[in-house]
Amino acid sequence: MPIVRCASLDDGSTRQGLNKTWIKQGRECVGTERINLPKQHIPTRRLAGELLCALILTAAISACTPGPSETQPMMAEAGPSIDAMIQAERKKLRVDHPGRQLYIEHCADCHAGGANEAPTREAIAMQGSEAIVRSLAFGVMQSQAAHLSPIERRDIAEYLGDPTAESAIDNVQANLCEGSFDPGMTVWERWGADARNHRYAPHSDLDREEIASLELKWAFGFPGAARARSQPAATTTTLFTGSQSGLVYALDRQTGCIRWAFAAQAEVRTSPSLQSGPDGRAERLYFADFDANVYALDVATGEAIWTVSVKDHPAGTSTGSPVLHEGRLFVPMSSLEVVDAYTPEYECCTFRGGVTALDVETGDTLWRMYTVPEAQERGTNSVGARQFGPSGAPVWNPPTIDADRGLLYFGTGENYSSPATEMSDSIIAVSMETGAIAWVTQTIEGDAWNAACGPYGTQVNCPEEDGPDFDFGAPPILVTDSDGRDILLAGQKSGMIYGLDPDDGGRLLWERRKGMGGFNGGIHWGMAVKDDRLYVGIADTPGNRFAVGENRQGMHVKDIRTNETVWSVLEPDLCDEPTHYCRTAVSAPPTVTDTAVFASTLNGIAKAYDIETGETLWSYNTLRDFDTVNGISARGGSIDSAGLVAVGDQLITNSGYDKFGQIPGNVLLVFGPRRDAE
Description:
Layout: E1 4-6, E2 32-33, E3 45-46, H1 51-55, H2 57-64, H3 82-93, H4 98-106, H5 108-111, H6 121-125, H7 129-138, H8 150-160, H9 168-173, E4 186-188, H10 208-212, E5 214-221, E6 233-235, E7 238-241, E8 247-252, E9 258-263, E10 273-276, E11 282-288, E12 293-298, E13 304-309, E14 316-317, E15 323-325, E16 328-335, H11 337-340, E17 354-359, E18 365-370, E19 376-380, E20 386-389, E21 400-402, E22 407-411, E23 426-431, E24 437-442, E25 477-480, E26 486-491, E27 496-501, E28 507-513, E29 527-530, E30 533-538, E31 554-559, E32 565-570, E33 591-592, E34 596-600, E35 605-610, E36 616-621, E37 625-626, E38 634-635, E39 645-647, E40 650-655, E41 667-673
Parallel strand pairs: 1-9
Antiparallel strand pairs: 2-3, 4-6, 5-41, 6-7, 7-8, 8-9, 10-11, 11-12, 12-13, 14-16, 15-16, 16-17, 17-18, 19-20, 21-22, 22-23, 23-24, 25-26, 26-27, 27-28, 29-30, 30-31, 31-32, 33-34, 34-35, 35-36, 37-38, 39-40, 40-41
Helix pairs in contact: 4-8, 7-8
């Protein structure tokens, strides 16, 4: 029985391991602008002048060669010739590589500091050349690279990445656990910890003193990755997590060795959901990949029980984690079309957001609902490409279960094209049985936006509404307060929090502003609840012209009955540069225990606040290199989208996020309290 399970591709072949590379951040100079940060924190910001080193080699050498204070004096009789110096510099900068000019012509506009969501060149290179080829051929960049030949795609990939890097599957085979495997009892079953998305960790045993003494126990490096987005699910013995390479891992909680790995057909960003038996033991694992394939696995073996596709649009994907309830798996539907619209020739836009319900035994579709009507042709844009609308209103978040009312709640994003519709930027309730819409509460009207908009956009496909791009990236939370009243709490990228009445058609009970809002929040990925208190992380990333008020990045706590603030901690930037290396913004969702609220930041800091006072109990900067249990070169980066997981005496976090100019990384970190006997 093979340990690495490979899902079949459309052509009947099996998925191969992906390569990785590690590019040290240092003094490379290829049309770059340096900033005064510690060496391990030096980001490379590409400028429009990147062509200079390729086209005027002499200037490139002059600009990049270390000055006299940085090198030993060169003796004429022993030093290399000018020609040798030129050739060495050409080799260093890879200016003769056929992929360089292709990268400049077809990729650099976005990845050299243009489009907001595009990873930097350094982040791309961390994936390795084979992963880059895969992305260009049938992954995230398939639409943008469709006009390139297979040879051209290969040239770009080999220019950016390392073709000799270790494969993810080879790394699995070298790091398997020994002995028998007990899958254990479920202790963190899904993204939101419970069906109501409270993100409260009842199985955490950490007290104040233990939190203060938390130290790194082990680190696991993801091969071929520049991001680590899949928040783990956990049992008493095992962590289950996905990866950018498409491998889903079962890792021993104490040692980090690999119990099994399953190769999905695409990157796995979602958090797995665990199904338990009557005794609480984990039995099945459900997740979706970035190509909108959904999987059910046997937890004990990693074998696939079924695999189905819910993709109904060429740009369709799944970012929000599927959620499980009484024989049904609810899968959020989102897409990459918001990015495809950046290209003026793209016929924007036709994707429709929504949710699909699957039978957990067979994977059969039970129902599918859409958040927008089918798009209609609406003329052409300025370059002659056909235009369609309405579109968009994707579902980025894991839905919330209301078992008593038989309803499923979720938030939606903006429309991609005009006209804006009544279910974008909304909280929607649908029947779990049929998918029929019970009610809709829209908080912002007229929000239509895509990547063609804004200061880095081409503008051609930007809808007339042009924003504000204030999605509900965070799922709603269903809570019962101490007075016995049910309230649905919703946080938005605008920085607003809403209290809705689930018994009165989602009627607005109250609204409060907690942040100024931004493209990444405001409130980005989620909030947490314990008792009558709501824990809110604020990112307030700058640049959105619709922002209101001052930046309030940090952690905020409010009483849901009185709407009064319990405590707030504003987190200052660590430096003055306009970069995520400085920005202490809380975009990932917090996690709350009986003792602390755990949060993480875009500059890679994991932190614990006292639940009563907001006092900092513990802080750890993940922006560093790590020795890993699987021998992979690994580094921390921005912590985004996935929150911390607290189970037993462990605290678990991913580190590394490569979108929006954030800091790439490829590591999973497991912390535990310091023990005197250790």
